Amino acid sequence: MLVHLQGPWTPLLGRLTLQQIPYHVPILVVTFIVVAILAAVVLAATTYFGKWGYLWREWLTTVDHKKIGVMYILLGLVMLLRGFADALMIRTQQAMAVGPSSPGYMGAVHGYLTPFHLGQVFTAHGLIMIVFAATPLLVGLMNIIVPLQIGARDMAYPYLNALGLWLTTAGAALVMVSLFVGNFAHGGWYGFVPYFELPYSPGVGVDYWMWTFQLAAIGTSLGSINLIATIVKMRAPGMTWMRMPMFTWASLSTNLIALTSFPVLMVALALLGLDRYVGTHFYTSGMGGNLMLYNDLFWVWGHPEVYFLILPAFGIMSEIIPTFSEKTLFGYVTMVIASFAIGGVSWGVWLHHFFTMAAAPSVNSFYSVTTMLVGIPTGVKVFNWIFTMYRGRVRYELPMLWALLALFLLLVGGMTGMMNAFASNDYMWHNGLFVVAHFHMMVLVIAASIFGAVEYWFPKVFGFKLEQKWGKWFFWFMILGTGWTFIPMFLLGFGGMTRRLDYIHYTQWSPYLHIMLIGMVFYVIAVLFFVAHLYVSLRDRAENRSGADAWGTGRSLEWATHSPVPAYNFAITPHINALDEWAWRKENGLTELHPGNYEGIHMPKSTGVPFFLGILFMGLSFALIWRIWWLALVCVALIVALIIIRSFDRDTDMTIPAHEVEQVESGARDGTSENLPTAGVLGGTVIAHSGPQSGTGGINGSTTSTSPAWAPMDR
To answer: Mind telling me which residue stretches traverse the membrane in this protein (predicted)?
Structure first.
């Protein structure tokens, strides 16, 4: 039976009233006006240029893993900007609200944000940066690159791939809606129980937080199933486990973490939902529950999630560093073992979040040791990256600069993490800014790796390189922002400052807070340089066209395809002969031959069902947040109906005719596509076999074929 709610409720709109629109908060009113103007401009431009049909056909209904990956990355960048805006508000509020004489603005006693509003900003910032910025950015990169690295034409489940994207987008949209309709949770991004129970948080903020999190967890779980199945079952012939690129290994490890940890989060949120909606007491100690149950469930997900994010970053570094050192990756086998060691140890560290809960010394000692154990495989990776660069022909291009920055930040974050691993240390600075600075170092490792990956693989996806000058300004101002923001934060942590303060009592902290604010100014400038970087790159794209191997020293299989990559990825399924397949082909002169004829390629059809399901799941969550029961029932009925209708649809595949494939391939070889060399483009990729083929000549024990030797993948 549903619990009794405080406040008004109507059958038509549930708890939603005009009073829930925060028109009395100036910041939100200005934000709404800006968002409305931007949305109007985008809609008007799309209509003026007649792009609605193109947008629907090519993007909103696509199941192409590359386009889905691009949309994941766009979603992550948008939410990264939103999360950064929240961080800017936090830093400015704390710099202004120091000492009893600090003035207040817009209804705040100190600074310009009320404690309630600042609590929402803190909560949204943490949730957005972890779940809706870093996660979509990395999932997008995995979507784009993994099938290309293993020689697949798409993901194992293209429809499921699109559904995961739109569920994640629905969750992100709910966060945005909470800005202007109701409010968001204000008790921290990971939730405090029993504070998040209905008697203590009767508003809709916790419900927004809960359903947003739940949608993201479902979407990411679906994506993890897809990536694992793709890696395990869809590798090209000859790609044994020990020939997989490191980014693919990192993706496999990280998605095993996701598949086993995100369901735990879903259970934790489902139990909280039952407490809030039905009146159970899973987390209420006085009613037979246990508040530590939530904390354990959340951090059993929450700390493996850290490695879910960091392992793909390590994989990115393991691709960039060998490419720009012009050497094979040092210690490949140990790097693979280290990736899975990190994933395994990640399950034994969550209790270090509770060092101050008065557990037995033996318990704290065990989790201190497991936390420190993570440093061993991580150290293996660091030394292997250094040895890869040792005596290599290192080129300091933008992707390499980002990889080196990530390596430096990893050392800082890793060493401060080892300091936090000691329970005795944690007793002193638990919940303080030292811990906050530490995990921001690790998040910045992820961010630097992502920016490096975007620079590195951008020409593969779009066919032209990003411009370098503005990109380097962006890079250097990111370094300035990081130093000026987080070095003072470490010092404030040593000085005893705790997190989530809307008012600073100690005036001696003021200089550090103002230095941090200068760091945020550097970050703002960096964002402007990033926008200029993208604009100039798009403007001058004709001058920056790149071939298949954009950097000239690519090593893995994705560099053997067209730039940009066609829908079918590979005209002929490649046979893999070595770990660094593309480097092996270049060494053996197997880059310019092409098959004499082509076959039709079996591919999935686009569908709008995942897009509509995303909208319906968002509508369902919004209805549950506001207790609009009729709308919830309608959304459930439509979701079930749409899934059933889709299950009867047999027209889900198509075949790209052989002549169309040949036309694309011939266009690259005869020079009609400017600056696309014949070496390494689709169709121009030689199929090298480990066994003899009639009418072929062997090179280093392998042979080449001038006709399709492998049938197109039939999924």
So the answer is: 23-49, 70-90, 122-146, 158-181, 208-232, 252-278, 298-317, 329-350, 365-387, 399-423, 435-458, 470-492, 512-536, 607-624, 630-648
